[in-house]
Fold Pyrroline-5-carboxylate reductase.
Amino acid sequence: MKIAVIGAGEMGGAFATGLLKGNMFKPSDITVANPHEDKLKQFAQMGACITTDNTVAIHHADLVALVVKPGVVKSVIEELKPELDYDKQIVINMAASVTIAQLEEWLKKNSEVPRIFQVLPNIGIAERASMSFIAPNAKGRECLDKVKAIFDDLGKTMITDERLLFAGTAMAGCGIAYVMRFVRAASEAGVELGFRADDAKEIIVQTMNGAVKLLQESGHHPEAEIDKVTTPGGMTIKGLNAMERNGFSNAVIEGIKASLV
């Protein structure tokens, strides 16, 4: 199985990096295409094939992943369309704000459309730790398991209706930035309390790792784990109440919702 990654920007580069670290493809079966060659050198050093020609990239590829800015998806499709083999190739679009209906319209050739997947991951995919949302077109459902397996190897996946893709992006794609902002703020608090900046960050990151493990392994609601460390009159409840007085929960909720406006 071979894959072509069209685009080596932030997300395209993260996707290619994850694939090269993963178990689904040999490095030589991964081709990364980008108009600027300087962005491709790192992938060649990891064993991938590279090219500045998108049409060359898709030759012999079983999967063609479009990982470019939404505004150029149509022009890239117009470039690739004559070379695509709809009987053999699967098209994966990873650009947000483009619908399956638009992709089918742009890709239609002799009244036929290919197997199309909308896949929206986050940049954690570079470390095989993405939360990826997958929505196929009708024809794509016949190979859903194959595409899901690829992204399962790069983190966790959720098959969803197309209407929920953008909400998923707000929670998981934008959510990476929200989590990073929490780490920064909590680290700054640690510095104010007397720790060096690097030590404060390490404390917060490891604490987050522990919280994530507890939720994943136990399956508990977050409040159940909060209750375990919240004692009457203790440090935790004082801190939680201070956060709520300053709008912590509401800020998180409104921030995620605002991403969709």
Observations:
- The mean pLDDT is 96.
- The chain has two domains: 3-160, 169-258.
